[in-house]
Amino acid sequence: MDTTPGRAGGRSDAEVVHSWVTHPRSAYWLMGDARLEDVEREYAAIAAHPHHDAFIGLHDGEPAFLMERYDPTEVELKGLYDAEPGDIGMHFLVAPPETPVHGYTLAVITTVMETLFADPATRRVVVEPDVTNTAVHALNKAVGFEVIREIAKPEKRALLSACTREQFEAATTGADR
To answer: What residue spans of 49-174 are helical by DSSP H?
Structure first.
């Protein structure tokens, strides 16, 4: 897997992302009713933002997941927590599978974290999933995230969590992997 931006069989990135974020399995993205134009506008704004990026990750050359990277002091978490030098924010979304594959989502979040920590300036990854998203909480824990606390965001109650490079390495280099 890699996080190289890509195209899907002539479909635009926005069409691909739209099909993912409007799928019922992606309810936590809060875009279930989004039109293609809404997704185009949202991701054009991210592309133009100096502190926010989005990438389509590929698996076997095909679009498979979305990764967003952001500066939490400027986007999403601005003023909601005590940022530390080297913090980077992250969102990820796995394309709804035709046939689920055991361990696939864990492989995706591991790839996303490896990509973020490939930048030596990144010391810690922070996330803010919905408090009710227990599947993501389990994945986050599996790659080393620790819960800091609940926070209130305009659109949700979130579970602010963080993972240092050392926590990630310890979680992903264990004997059971």
So the answer is: 104-117, 134-142, 165-172
d(CA 13, CA 101): 24
How far apart are the C-alpha atoms of 5 and 151, rounded to whole Å? 32
pTM: predicted TM-score of the whole model, two decimal places: 0.88
Q: Which residues, 6+ apart, have CB-to-CB distance to 44 below 8 Å?
A: none
Which residue bears the tokens 């974290």? 113
Over residues 134-166, the pLDDT tens digits come to: 999 999 999 999 999 999 999 999 999 999 999
Residue 97 buriedness (CB in 10 A; 0-12 / 13-18 / 19+): exposed
Largest pairwise CA distance in the chain: 47
